[in-house]
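Re: beginner question about structure tokens

> Can someone show what the tokenized structure looks like for a real chain? I only ever see the sequence side.

Sure, here's an example I had lying around. Input first:
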Amino acid sequence: MLVGTLFGVQVRINLLFLALLTFLGATGYFAHALLLLCAIVTHELAHLLVAVSYDYPVERVELFPFGGQAQLTYLPYRPGAREAVVAMAGPLNNFLLAALASVLMDTTGWRHDLVLYFYQTNLIIACFNLLPVLPLDGGRIVRAHLLGRIDYARATRRLVAAARAASLVLTFVATIAVLFGYLYINAYILALFLWWAAGRERAKGVMSQMRFLLRKKQRVLEEGLVPVTTLLAVESTRTRVLLERIAPRRYHIVEVVDRDMRSLGTLTETELLEGVAALGADSRVGEILARKGRR
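And the corresponding structure tokens:
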């Protein structure tokens, strides 16, 4: 649900988060709902301010119960170190708010239960978001580190798988706790959120990779010189597989062959992306090559 704009960026609130805030307010915890909203909004505001300072093209931000997620118009060409800094801004904000709350707990004039809740909420949000899985901030930091070794899509896929594994482990631990007489509803909610959010991140993976690769064209034109890598692909190869093999800091030429290893022609990286845009990520390399010949 759209709630407004900030720095020209759409701000949306997820229905799950809206339901949680409504539930807290309806059960007499309105002040707690406001403190939770404050922790989440300032978390995303910290991300947004750093992203804007790097000229990241942020289109919209969506608020969830344990953080938020930004949608970029396109992926900057070098997301590595800067993506890590942007990701760290949110948890750092919550650690600072937790530190402030710890100071206020020792002063008079503040309700101790609310200050304690604010302290615990910020600590939970910061620590939860630093888990090394996507789409959490910790996962984005790890992905920024991995981009020096593997491509964006492959790094995303690994961290999404890690999120699914973490969700299953959290569910298992919460279930074991129930057997010993302890019921942790929050653990089940976190597990479900991780599983669902990881699915969304995986669905965006191929499109994010394409937006990232399209930025290369601008870099080539600006710098005039980039390393080139040749890839050999059988005509029946799915273009989705090729997109996952394209490295972020090199330009690629695809040599297309038949099953007898006879050359059928070549595709530039730009032609490959144009073909994917026209035929879809499940098209075959031979189909894109044939399309090139018909133009």
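Each token stands for a local structural state, so reading them left to right follows the chain. The chain has two domains: 2-217, 227-294.
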